[in-house]
């Protein structure tokens, strides 16, 4: 049946002329096709490949298939070639080869296709899946797109848009942390996010801005211009220094017209700098006024609480007032430096008014570009946040997009329960904007709450031997090949290690796959390995007792993008967690994480 429909499918899919198609296929030393049962066994030849890992993420999909149907694969090529794709790591195929936890398929099978994914038991979720073929020392990559039947694409796009905003929010949280403003402090300050972003911009740039203003107070860019003037004709103009005079002269004095050179400060970048400094001074004046208003209100509250100087609110208020004074002083310092520049000769000579287009010198001269950047970030604070290009490369890797999105949901869930960010990726400046450096493999974020501490590790590798562990950074170990979960949450209380939560983010319909023991054998082994991780640092135990008697990972969470009632598998200490944009279950995550933390504190 597949053979008959395959032939008819080839006729329908002939996009190129026979000659052009043959020439294109000759460039590939293998042949790859997908076959779907849902549309009568139609054949989809896959020929759109690129070489680079980043290039594939900018490429269009080579084949698009509708979700929830059986997908067959035909792969022909030299015997040493191998095929793999996203999703093969969680299914069990009879002829697959496992290399570093990834499944690879050999070509051949006598030219017959074989079932790759079964729509009933393991439907691929809508998104992009990277296909990889290796052989002869080369790597070919392409994209397979699974399209939704109903509203799945909107949820998929919403996840992408939501991730952008949440990365910006996380950047902002770390920016606040770097200027020593905690969540409780933020409440005491009573400031909106725009004001806090201005705090950060001034904190980051003030020293450099004052230095630049000191230089501009002494000198600025100038040009030599030629202009027409006159000299008195009764002087030896050839032998004396010619100084241009105006066209007017005393009546009766003979003059000669000349073209002479003159230095001018009225150049485009100085006109721009003058306009920027005037506007920057206005912004800083408003900034100082806003600080004074907040300080005045907070001062009244402090006066009312003066009798309770040991009270936590009073201490937070005093700390907040100290922050106000510090940032007010920095803003005033910059304003004073601007006044010094305003007394310079070039400042008076340069015309006022912001030019319609930015002079090129603004981008070439770091002094002018720094002033423009500070002005822009103070005027529109929200625009000072951006998203790393790292994430742009992940948009077409839907499984990676889902992993990043889920990781941020756990951070949000902890913050919702009163946890404060302590350490994490650096906030860097790029093209005049602030952004969080990429959440790459092994990224660690630390949060604190009273005497508790949590370390969240994204896609980190667990040590293989007890001797490689460390109480503070790597308390767990396992000798299993499955030792790289998407998320690990290490929990500490009063400096003691109390256990971990291990979670994997599966952009698959993992619950339905789990119900088929044979098809899910691979992920059952994986989750078992996570559950059986060990430690020699459990609470206050001796090392030998900890290794023999502790169970630091009480549960493993399988997170996937489909809403189901709360489910689990006690035999595997496994809990299924529904998480995706728009799901009602999203609101349960914070409480579930908190309950797990409580369980770690129980004997």
From TrEMBL:
UniProt name for this protein: DUF2357 domain-containing protein
Gene source species = Dialister invisus
């Amino acid at each position: 049946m597949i053979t008959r429909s395959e032939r008819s499918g080839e006729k329908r899919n002939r996009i190129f002329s026979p000659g052009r198609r043959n020439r294109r296929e000759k460039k590939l030393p293998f042949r790859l096709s997908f076959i779907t049962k849902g549309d009568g066994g139609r054949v989809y030849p896959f020929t759109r490949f690129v070489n680079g890992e980043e290039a594939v993420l900018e490429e269009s999909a080579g084949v698009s298939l509708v979700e929830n149907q059986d997908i067959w694969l035909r792969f022909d090529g030299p015997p040493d070639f191998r095929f793999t794709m996203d999703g093969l790591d969680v299914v069990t195929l009879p002829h697959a080869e496992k290399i570093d936890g990834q499944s690879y398929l050999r070509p051949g099978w006598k030219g017959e296709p074989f079932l790759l994914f079964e729509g009933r038991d393991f439907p691929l979720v809508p998104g992009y899946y990277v296909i990889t073929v290796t052989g002869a020392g080369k790597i070919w990559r392409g994209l397979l797109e699974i399209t939704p039947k109903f509203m799945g694409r909107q949820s998929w796009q919403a996840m992408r848009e939501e991730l952008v905003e949440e990365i910006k929010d996380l950047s902002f949280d770390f920016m606040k942390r770097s200027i020593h403003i905690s969540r409780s402090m933020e409440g005491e300050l009573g400031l909106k996010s725009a004001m806090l972003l201005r705090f950060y911009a001034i904190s980051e740039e003030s020293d450099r801005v004052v230095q630049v203003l000191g230089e501009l107070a002494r000198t600025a860019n100038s040009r030599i211009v030629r202009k027409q003037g006159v000299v008195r004709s009764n002087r030896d103009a050839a032998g004396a220094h010619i100084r241009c005079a105006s066209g007017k002269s005393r009546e009766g004095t003979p003059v000669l017209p000349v073209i002479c050179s003159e230095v001018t400060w009225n150049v485009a970048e100085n006109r721009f700098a003058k306009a920027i400094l005037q506007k920057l001074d206005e912004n800083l004046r408003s900034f100082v006024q806003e600080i004074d208003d907040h300080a005045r209100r907070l001062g009244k509250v402090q006066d009312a609480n003066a009798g309770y100087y040991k009270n936590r609110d009073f201490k937070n208020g005093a700390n907040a007032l100290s922050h106000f004074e510090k940032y007010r002083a920095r803003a005033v310092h910059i304003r004073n430096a601007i006044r010094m520049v305003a007394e310079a000769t070039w400042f008076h000579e340069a015309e006022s008014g912001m030019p319609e287009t930015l002079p090129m010198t603004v981008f070439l001269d770091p002094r002018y570009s720094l002033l423009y950047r500070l002005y822009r970030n103070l005027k529109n604070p929200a625009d000072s946040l951006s998203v790393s290009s790292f994430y742009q490369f992940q948009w077409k890797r839907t499984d990676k997009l889902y992993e990043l999105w889920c990781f941020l949901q756990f951070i949000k869930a902890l913050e919702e329960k009163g946890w404060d960010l302590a350490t994490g990726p650096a906030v860097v400046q790029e093209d005049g904007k602030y952004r969080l450096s990429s959440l790459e493999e092994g990224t660690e974020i630390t949060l604190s709450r009273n005497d508790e501490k949590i370390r969240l590790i994204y896609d980190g590798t667990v040590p293989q031997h007890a001797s490689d562990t460390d109480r503070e950074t790597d308390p767990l170990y396992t000798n299993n090949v499955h030792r790289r979960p998407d998320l690990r949450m290490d929990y500490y209380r009063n400096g003691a290690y109390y256990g971990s939560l291990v979670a994997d983010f599966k952009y698959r319909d993992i619950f339905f796959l789990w119900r088929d023991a044979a098809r899910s054998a691979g992920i059952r082994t994986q989750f078992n390995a996570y559950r059986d991780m060990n430690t020699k640092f459990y609470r206050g135990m001796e090392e030998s007792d900890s290794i023999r008697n502790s169970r630091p990972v009480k549960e493993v969470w399988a997170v996937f993008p489909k809403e189901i009632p709360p489910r689990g598998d006690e035999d595997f200490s496994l809990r299924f967690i529904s998480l995706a944009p728009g799901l009602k279950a999203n609101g349960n995550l914070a409480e579930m994480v908190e309950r797990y933390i409580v369980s770690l504190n129980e004997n």
